[in-house]
Amino acid sequence: MSRMVAIASGKGGVGKTFLSATLAHALVRRGRRCLVFDGDLGLANLDVQLGIAAAVDLAQVLHGRIDLAEAVIHHPSTGLDLVVGRSGSGLLAGLPPARVAALGGRLRELAAAYDLVLLDLAAGIEPPCRILARAADEVVVVTTDEPTALTDAYAFVKVVCDPARPVGVVVNFADDREGGRETYRALARACRRFLGLEPRLLGVVRRDPRVADAIRVQMPFLARHPRSVVAEDIERLAATLLEPAPIPPPGPSR
Ligand SMILES: Nc1ncnc2c1ncn2[C@@H]1O[C@H](COP(=O)(O)OP(=O)(O)OP(=O)(O)O)[C@@H](O)[C@H]1O
Ligand SMILES: [Mg+2]
Predict the structure, then answer these.
(1) Is the CB of residue 161 below 6 angstroms from any atom belonging to ligand 1?
(2) pLDDT digit string, tens, across residues 152-161
(3) What are the domain boundaries of the chain?
(4) Could you say which of 4, 86, 107, 204 is the most buried, measured as most Cβ atoms within 10 Å of its Cβ?
(5) Which overall architecture, per CATH, does domain 3-241 show?
(6) Whether the CB of 172 sits within 6 Å of ligand 1
(7) How far is the CA of 16 from the centre of ligand 1 (A)?
């Protein structure tokens, strides 16, 4: 069965695009068919991180020139399929909600050909972002241990998530695993207490300067630094994502 997973955050720059591309690569290496959709509606950069010069992109889809299926490009070195955006076009950011919803619906149809579709969203809780997140089966919120990132991650969960849509958390830029788990516990406590939601910890990804190196040379991270701590963390993250989600405990009675 195909799964559509939105990779979201409240605060920008927490590593969504890097994680989407690298996690998807790890999933392909586990034999899954994966599509990554660049849903950053104003500042797309998935293609830049992977060093791709795409002949087709989402802008052409939104101009009605091609169908979404025709905007899918194959990235041979990772085995990923991608739909890339067009950075700075501003086109998507101004799209009316009904058209964003239609795009999400079309993406869902396309998802049938894959095991997993990862939607790399823009940061924040603007309407296009919420609409695309709601088109997904589950939401993964990326945060760091910075108070601003945590507060914004909580705001995202509050605005977008409900008990019907599982929420996973990835703590990125962690100094160590225990620190990352502590950050998760702080977010989970607030979600449990104020929203009656129990987000699942999908993984902790440690801080590593080799991430910047791979992006600088525009190479897939797992190919460039296969034995780094981040590669190890992302492999674990991929394994956890593929585990069946635990059955949520009954919510508090209100
Ligand atoms: N675990 C990590 N260790 C070190 N650097 C990292 C890590 N994860 C991401 N980065 C760096 O953080 C920067 C931001 O990453 P990325 O572009 O993926 O964030 P984003 O959440 O997609 O940002 P935006 O909100 O602008 O879309 C990148 O330059 C990347 O090199
Ligand atoms: Mg991004």
Answers:
(1) no
(2) 999 999 999 8
(3) 3-241
(4) 204
(5) 3-Layer(aba) Sandwich (3.40)
(6) yes
(7) 6
